[in-house]
Amino acid sequence: IEANWKIAQEAFAEAYHVSATHPQASAYLGDTNSQIDCWENFARSVTPSLTPSPLLAWAPTEDDMLRAMLDVRIGDPLPVAVPSGKTAREVAADNARDRWRPAFGDRVDTWTDAEMVDNLTYTVFPNFHPWGALNRIVYRFRPNGNDHRSSIMEVLYPSPFRGERPPPAKVHQLAADEPWSNASELGLLAKVFEQDTFNMKQVQRGLEATRKPGVTLASYQESKVRWLNHKIDQWLAKP
């Protein structure tokens, strides 16, 4: 449990790690504008996309936001244009509908822009993290045997299909010192995971070295962390 909390903490405090760990996302991700909800055995954070971070000292244009989201270098043409009178958020949502239309048909026209582009991350106690709406990412954290200083992080990519169920995907297991970029099937997400894990060693060392009796948590944006530890305390106290 201790290792799971340390390694998975960025999944719980999604908003606060963006500006330092993923600064390239600040142009299109409203990180500290996230909504946090905690219920009995699961919690959720909703982070708006294609709206800039309130922490930015400059105002990105609609093209700037789309360029940052698509990871297109400055000077290279955008694969999708933002027409006059439209926003990058609307354009991205419409493109997402076109992407999923072959799988879901015209049902995609009844789904909101938020379901198309926003980041809805759920935590189902104790270690299951499915993203909501049409985001395919699913995390699961498991103990690494009896090693309390490490954990096994799994990334699952479920896909919709029609007709006969395809065979299960092969598991691609990375070694402890192997970069996420070796998992090419993750696409741009592999780069994001490289950033996530870069500072994990320092975070764990800091937690172990601190003389404080506990961790100081933000009253709202880190309420998922508080909720998780409260649930762990409840379960450990059970006979």
Describe the structure.
The protein is α+β, with helices and mostly antiparallel strands. Helices cover 34% and strands 15% of the residues. The strands form 2 sheets. Strands 1-2-3 form a 3-stranded antiparallel beta sheet. It is globular and about 55 Å long. It starts with a helix and ends with a helix. Residues 1-12 have low confidence and may be disordered.
Mean pLDDT: 87
Number of strands: 6
Helical content stands at 25-40%
* Helix and strand element order: HHEEHHHEEEEHHH
Shape: globular
Unreliably modeled segments: 1-12
Strand order of the largest sheet: 1-2-3
Return Rg in Å.
19 Å
Strand percentage, roughly? 15-25%
Major sheet size, sense and barrel closure: 3 strands, antiparallel
Helix count, DSSP H or I runs of 4 or more residues: 8
Supply the helix-strand structural class. alpha+beta
Distance between the termini: 18 Å
Primary descriptors:
6 strands, globular, alpha+beta, single chain, three-stranded antiparallel sheet, 34% helix, 239 residues, disordered N terminus, 8 helices
Quick gist of this model?
This protein has eight helices and six strands.
Fold blueprint:
Elements: H1 2-12, H2 18-21, E1 35-38, E2 42-47, H3 62-70, H4 88-104, H5 113-117, E3 119-124, E4 128-130, E5 138-144, E6 147-156, H6 188-198, H7 200-209, H8 223-236
Antiparallel strand pairs: 1-2, 2-3, 4-5, 5-6
